[in-house]
């Protein structure tokens, strides 16, 4: 394996508050490889959103380095074109579906990004059609965004990014304002873009059942990374999860509660399906003891 | 058991007489028990938001009646604004409606409009600030300098300060982290207790409903699909699934275990109840 797609080294960031700057990130170092599906979790104010905004160059680090494809983004020799290239490679979907659609027709909105990149119109047509098909919104191409549901709006926003052919998409609490159906659709979309198109997905979320679907979970607390691993490993450390102000998935809480009675259920218990398997195995094992 | 609010045969149609005509409520009758927390659940488009707007007279039924303490709220249409002081409605993302210079002034806005005396307002502000967990020091800040969770609590405090007998909240914890969610629900439960208020919460989160509500009303296709105590509703989890609603994750686990031949309690919809039920399985196995 060569250079990671994203390398973060000793990253620091403080928000300006005149006299006393507020530190949001402290000494954060992490690598993210191309094609990974990563969930970033942490309580409000833990630094996770700041981290996302730094990756996309919306914010500038106050210390440390971020390398995208081996390039230091703080390098003074970075041209505007280099910055645009990074913003094109790393797309971002935000929380509020009403704040990111600009056009009055769905397909115009999806075309907005590629148009700004100066792509020939025949190519744009192709990309818009493909992007809308990818997110399952083709039949809404001529609709008004204002008449769509929240989940549909988010899928249009995702299509707008997909049409720019990004290498990575960061979802900054993109499901927080959606109902369960909209949320499930958007999470399915993340998984599909990652699995089928190899796009690196970084999702920032408060929902444990979304985080457990990623390949890797990174936990922020108080501006620092306090855990980084497979969902089952991270959630197995219930003490750390609680200290970080997060909830365990309900099934993991059950397993944790059983421990108090001397009953141990081993294995991945992050989802009801996996937990049911683990309980059946444990009961089978306890038989005849 | 006494109902604070009674909805009788209420129907409502959006854009009647046009091609966009939508039946939002279809002959709905339901009561909301006095002094209890009732959860209102259902799909987007099931009619629950329309129902909520009926409760304080923001919408007028096309037919049917809305009764509070047995009195029809539309009996004297000119006095409908009085109903809005008795039934406090906290909309989704209420923090977008903060606008005053200080948190204190923002909380006082509603009470002032209803004609509370300055003395009363000061007392009420102090009480609700304590309930939602906002420090005295925060009250003199601009609402725009608060964190997201604090803004939400300030906005809810503004409705609580009017001391409504009925408090209705639409997705009060949406978008908050787990700590923020818990502190909001704890504040609502605290208000309920202190004022013996009747509380109605609309939410998509079944885990939260299971944990905080005494009763649950399920809406589907503009009608009440089921209603009962939280125990009664979650015992019928498979019916919730059949109308496309979520169930608590732990209930799904219980259903999976049952399907695979284990004798677990399907009525276990909290983690503690599930622990007890699964523990029993292990105990029985050991004895064999």
Greatest interface (CB-CB under 8 A), with counts per chain: A-B, 40 and 38 residues
Q: Could you give me the name of the CATH homologous superfamily of the largest domain in chain A?
A: P-loop containing nucleotide triphosphate hydrolases
Find the structural class of chain B using helix and strand composition. alpha/beta
- Mass-distribution shape of chain A: globular
Proportion in β-strands of chain A: 15-25%
The counted number of beta strands of chain B is 10
The percent of residues in helical segments of chain A reads 25-40%
> Which residue ranges of chain B are poorly predicted, with pLDDT under 50 across at least 5 consecutive positions?
none
Cα shape of chain B: globular
The CATH first-level class of the largest domain in chain A comes to Alpha Beta
With strands numbered from the N-terminus, the spatial order across the biggest sheet of chain A is 6-7-8-3-9-10
Mean pLDDT of chain B: 92
CATH architecture of the largest domain in chain A, by name, is 3-Layer(aba) Sandwich
Q: How many structurally independent domains of chain B?
A: 2
Helical stretch tally of chain A = 11
């Amino acid at each position: 394996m060569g250079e990671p797609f994203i390398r973060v080294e000793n990253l620091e960031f403080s928000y300006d508050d005149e006299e006393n700057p507020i530190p949001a990130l402290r000494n954060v170092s992490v690598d993210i490889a191309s094609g990974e599906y990563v969930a970033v979790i942490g309580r409000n104010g833990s630094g996770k959103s700041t981290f996302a905004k730094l990756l996309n160059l919306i914010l500038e680090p106050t210390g440390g380095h971020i390398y995208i494809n081996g390039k230091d983004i703080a390098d003074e020799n970075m041209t505007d074109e280099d910055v645009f290239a990074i913003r094109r490679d790393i797309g971002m979907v935000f929380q509020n579906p009403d704040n990111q659609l600009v056009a009055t027709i769905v397909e115009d909105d999806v075309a907005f990004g590629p148009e700004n990149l100066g792509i020939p119109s025949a190519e744009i047509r192709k990309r818009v059609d493909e992007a809308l098909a990818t997110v399952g919104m083709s039949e809404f191409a001529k609709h008004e965004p204002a008449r769509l549901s929240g989940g549909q709006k988010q899928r249009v926003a995702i299509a707008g990014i997909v049409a720019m052919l990004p290498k990575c998409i960061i979802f900054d609490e993109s499901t927080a304002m959606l109902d369960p159906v909209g949320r499930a659709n958007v999470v399915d979309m993340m998984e599909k873009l990652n699995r089928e198109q190899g796009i690196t997905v970084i999702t920032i979320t408060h929902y444990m059942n979304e985080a457990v679907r990623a390949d890797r979970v990174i936990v922020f607390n108080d501006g620092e990374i306090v855990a980084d691993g497979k969902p089952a490993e991270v959630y197995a450390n219930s003490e750390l999860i609680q200290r970080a102000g997060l909830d365990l998935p309900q099934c993991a809480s059950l397993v944790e509660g059983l421990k108090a009675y001397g009953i141990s259920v081993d294995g991945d218990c992050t989802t009801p399906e996996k937990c049911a398997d683990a309980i059946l195995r444990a009961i089978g094992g306890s038989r005849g003891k | 058991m006494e109902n604070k609010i009674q909805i009788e045969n209420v129907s409502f149609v959006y854009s009647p007489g046009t091609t966009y005509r939508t039946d939002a409520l279809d002959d709905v009758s339901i009561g909301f028990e006095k002094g209890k927390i009732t959860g209102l659940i259902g799909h987007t488009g099931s009619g629950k938001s329309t129902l909520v707007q009926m409760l304080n007279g923001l919408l007028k039924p096309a037919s049917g009646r809305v009764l509070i303490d047995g009195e029809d709220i539309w009996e004297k249409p000119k006095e409908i604004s009085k109903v809005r002081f008795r039934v406090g409605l906290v909309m989704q993302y209420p923090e977008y409606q903060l606008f005053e210079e200080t948190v204190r002034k923002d909380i006082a806005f509603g009470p002032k409009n209803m004609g509370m005396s300055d003395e009363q307002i000061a007392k009420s502000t102090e009480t609700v600030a304590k309930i939602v967990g906002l420090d005295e020091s925060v009250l003199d800040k601009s609402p725009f300098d608060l964190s997201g969770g604090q803004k939400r609590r300030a906005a809810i405090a503004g409705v609580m300060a009017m001391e409504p007998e009925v408090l209705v909240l639409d997705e009060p914890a949406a978008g908050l982290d787990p700590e923020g969610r818990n502190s909001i629900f704890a504040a609502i439960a605290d208000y309920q207790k202190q004022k013996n208020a009747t509380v109605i919460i609309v939410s998509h989160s079944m885990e939260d409903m299971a944990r905080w509500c005494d009763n649950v009303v399920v809406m589907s296709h503009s009608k009440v699909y089921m209603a009962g105590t939280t125990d009664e509703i979650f015992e019928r989890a498979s019916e919730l699934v059949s109308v496309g609603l979520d169930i608590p994750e732990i209930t799904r686990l219980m259903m999976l275990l049952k399907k695979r031949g284990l004798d677990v309690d399907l009525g276990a919809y909290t983690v503690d109840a599930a622990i007890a039920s699964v523990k029993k399985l292990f105990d029985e196995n050991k004895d064999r």
